[in-house]
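User: Second chain of the day. Same drill as before.
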Amino acid sequence: MSDSMHQAERIDLARYWWLPVLVLTFLIGGGGYGIWAITWPAVKAARLGQPLPAGWTWASVIGVDMVLIGLFGYLCWQALIQWLTYFTIEGIGQPRLGGYAFLRWSEVTRVTRKLNTIELQSSGQTLQIAYAQFRDIDQLITLIRERVPARAFQSDF
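Assistant: Same format as last time:
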């Protein structure tokens, strides 16, 4: 069944709308500041015809910038995955780089509660749900308990 067919069957759980906005703002701002803090002194020194500060080379400045872009990009992507996760009467959808992954409730073989997430596994994929984004965590847990086969639950759930 295509993703568009799951649209009409969505189950809405109340979420904190401001949480992903706050997280993304922090991540983008933090990443931008980190890149600026490393790159600006090098640019400033180059404009003044001075050597780069503290033994930096342009290769190391660009390398650290690329690592920061990758790190903060990955963290932003993880936040977006959580924000765009949806639930239907048939299962859970989560974005992936190539589209959406959809895990049917009946295919879940293991449910594990971790520090900040609930992890749902099947033979072919794993989806993680950050439960701090939900206003009523018990509603999320009830939804999962009602829809996932009982054999999939670990004793700590």
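The longest strand covers residues 91-96.

User: Great, on to the next one.
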